[in-house]
Design a protein that fits this description.
Layout (H helix, E strand, L loop, with lengths): L23 H25 L9 H16 L8 H8 L2 H21 L2 H33 L7 H19 L16 H21 L8 H11 L3 H5 L3 H24 L6 H25 L7 H24 L5 H10 L1 H4 L1
Helix pairs in contact: 1-8, 1-10, 2-10, 2-11, 4-12, 5-6, 5-8, 5-12, 6-7, 7-8
Length: 347
């Protein structure tokens, strides 16, 4: 999900199709669900994490399956929506060509490039992945502020959330053991610098929040904003890979599953149509999610298996690219489509 901003007046011009009536109960459901899923994931994952590099147990493994593979797979649901397909037909570069190129390119690289050099390429992949996580956090904080009538995030607030994400990502990349990357040198001096930068971002972000008028920093806005700032805290608290990283992955995935589920079940269409859309979303997420999950474990096989693993990485990156377009609310189609599906957040 990309950062959201204020909906321009052109989206509310005379003659625009009426939107469904906003439902405060649904807005509250999204808010409470987002906070519980985010904070619950960040707390529970370290508690369930195995010691050292041991494999996760069934509970954490199940949480990771839903928060990782299933959440990526559900992006494919958008391709089943007729109005989204019409939009895709006019933007084939982003929604067709780029995903196919990523799948083919990463499959070829994984099959051809030896394992150790390919591991170095994974650092770039993880950098993109975790920056994508923080872009979604920024988008959720902006969405909460706008949905609760507090206006867009201020420039300093956006800067603080972005800086916290950059510092957290730098901490991970400088400590590759947290990403379970073997034979990658640890940049020991970078990690404490990243930790210091993260602490500064937290302090600066807290000051920015307190500069808001009291009416504009109520529990809803402050809760989502602070959870976005604190998102990368486990990176600097834990030495176990699963304790440091699993919570980030699960929280990000569950945030996404919640809001995409609301999109699938939203709008003014008949109840039966919305239930079918949710069923399609569930089936796509589980079936493609199983395929992605199996592919993610093939990195130690032969060239064919590694090609499948590379295609898995390409699918995740395609998810980044597709989402960056479909959630960009400064563009007319996402603003209109999501506004009709989520009027209680974007109305």
């Amino acid at each position: 999900m990309s950062p959201v901003g204020p909906i321009p007046a052109t989206a509310r011009r005379e003659g625009a199709p009426p939107r469904p009536a906003a439902r405060p109960g649904m807005r509250r459901f999204w808010l409470v669900g987002t906070l519980l899923l985010t904070l619950g994931s960040l707390v529970c994952a370290p508690l369930l994490a195995p010691a050292g590099n041991d494999s996760p147990g069934r509970a954490l493994g199940g949480l990771l399956f839903l928060g990782s593979s299933v959440h990526v797979a559900t992006t494919a649901w958008f391709y089943t929506v007729p109005e989204v397909r019409r939009h895709i037909a006019g933007h084939r570069g982003r929604y067709v060509t780029a995903p196919v190129a990523l799948l083919a390119g990463t499959a070829a690289l994984a099959a051809i490039v030896p394992e150790q050099p390919f591991t170095l390429l994974l650092l770039a992949y993880f950098g993109w992945q975790f920056f994508h996580f923080q872009k979604q956090n920024l988008g959720l904080a902006a969405l909460a502020s706008a949905a609760y009538g507090c206006g867009p995030l201020r420039r300093g607030e956006r800067l603080a959330i972005t800086a916290a994400g950059v510092a957290g990502t730098a901490g991970l990349l400088s400590h590759p053991a947290l990403l379970q990357l073997a034979d990658v040198p640890r940049l020991g001096l970078v990690f404490p610098v990243a930790a210091g930068a993260y602490a500064l971002a937290l302090g600066y972000g807290s000051v920015q929040l307190m500069r808001r008028p009291p009416r504009d920093r109520g529990p809803a806005v402050a809760g989502v904003y602070l959870s976005s700032l604190l998102f990368f805290l486990p990176v600097f608290l834990f030495h176990s890979p699963y304790a440091a990283v699993a919570g980030l992955t699960v929280a990000h995935g569950y945030q996404y599953l919640l809001i995409v589920g609301l999109v699938a079940g939203g709008g003014s269409g008949p109840r039966a149509v919305r239930l079918v859309a949710l069923a399609v979303l569930l089936n796509i997420g589980l079936i493609l999610g199983l395929a992605l999950n199996l592919s993610s474990h093939l990195h130690t096989g032969g060239p064919a298996a590694r090609a499948v693993y590379g295609a898995y990485l390409g699918a995740v990156m395609a998810h980044f690219v597709v989402d960056a377009g479909l959630w960009r609310l400064r563009d007319e189609f996402p603003r209109s489509f999501l506004g009709r599906r989520l009027p209680y957040l974007l109305g």
